[in-house]
Amino acid sequence: MPESAENVLAVVVEEAMNVREELGGAVAEAVGGTRSGLSALAAGGACGLLATLMAHAALQERLARTWSPEAAAAALALTYATSATALVTYGKARLRRAREASREALDVSRDAVARTADELAHG
């Protein structure tokens, strides 16, 4: 193999290894962030359902001893809505961070391809 071809091959291999290292962290962050965000959304839904099914009747009955049944139901509904909002907000934030990490990984890939193409074009 001619020396120039070996040099090109060495540059390509070196850039591929650099990209692999750079992408490793970005991809891991993107996957972890997506997993955390989806888990938080699922946990929020499960918590909301379990709270409604398991505790609603008992809490409403207890509150109705002090307040009217309508006021007790309204207080519980407000509590559930607040909890659901907090969990959804957290999940959306995690998904947003994961999307940003994915974009960063894509930018790193583009930069590496551009550098490699530039090095190959200009020797």
Instruction: Please provide the ordered H/E string of secondary-structure elements.
Output: HH
Q: If you compute it from the alpha carbons, what radius of gyration comes out, rounded to the nearest whole angstrom?
A: 27 Å
Q: Major sheet, described briefly?
A: none
Total DSSP E strands: 0
The helical percent reads over 70%
Please mark out the parts with pLDDT under 50 across 5 or more consecutive residues, or reply none.
Answer: none
Beta-strand level of the residues, as a percent range?
A: under 5%
Round the mean pLDDT to the nearest integer and report it: 80
Straight-line N-to-C gap: 17 Å
Described by the principal axes of the CA atoms, the overall outline is: rod-shaped
Individual helix count? 2
Q: Which structural class should the secondary elements be placed in?
A: mainly alpha
Question: What do you see in this structure?
Answer:
By secondary structure, the protein is mostly helical. It has two helices and no strands. It starts with a helix and ends with a helix. The mean pLDDT is 80.
Summarize the structure.
The chain has 123 residues and is mostly helical.
Short descriptors:
single chain; 123 residues; mainly alpha; 2 helices
Task: Itemize the secondary structure elements and their pairings.
Elements: H1 3-64, H2 69-122
Helix pairs in contact: 1-2
